[in-house]
Amino acid sequence: xxxxxxxxxxxxxxxxxxxxxxxxLVIERFLSLKTARVAPPRLLDEAISVSRAAVPAPDVxxxxxQNSALGEVLASGFRALNxxxxxTESDLRATMEGAGRAVAHRLERYLSxxxxxxxxxxxxxxxxxxxxxxxxxxxxxxxxxxxxxxxxQLAHGISxxxxxxxxxxxxAIPALxxxxxxxxxxxxxxxxxxxxxxxxxxxxxALRRA
Length: 210
Fold this sequence. Notes:
Blueprint: H1 2-8, H2 12-32, H3 35-38, H4 43-49, H5 58-65, H6 69-83, H7 89-107, H8 111-140, H9 151-209
Helix pairs in contact: 1-9, 2-8, 2-9, 5-6, 6-7, 6-9, 7-9, 8-9
């Protein structure tokens, strides 16, 4: 593999860098988008159960905030009531929506970089192939009236140049697949957070009237 990379020339090195970066992003997103770190299934019911009679103590709210992304959104509702027990519904919703936007931005982090790699890798591969073929045909040009170079050598040079295109596609296809997978996963999480927030707002409004 290393001999192929060396033979393909300098244009393949940006592709190697893209492959390393894409692998790091995929691993990071897999770790960050675990269900337990974003939206634990029973967290909403637990938050509602511990606040049946009153808003929990600040240390409980802090523990909820540090639990997960969903916990951060729910804790923002508790903090809004703690700071102003008579806050309006619009203020409560605005506070939780602000926390939700911050969480959404964090969930979508690095997805644009992964999409950029998926789009740019084939172009980088094509660029490397074009540069390689230009160099090959330039070296095969007749000089001093001598006939063209060795056809076998020319074919070998073209095959080496095409390694850039192949390597670009090898990087782009998995990157595109993982980007779509993570994009769908983030969208599902955002829907879960939105539905949970709406249910929690109704609970907090009932708690405020109690």
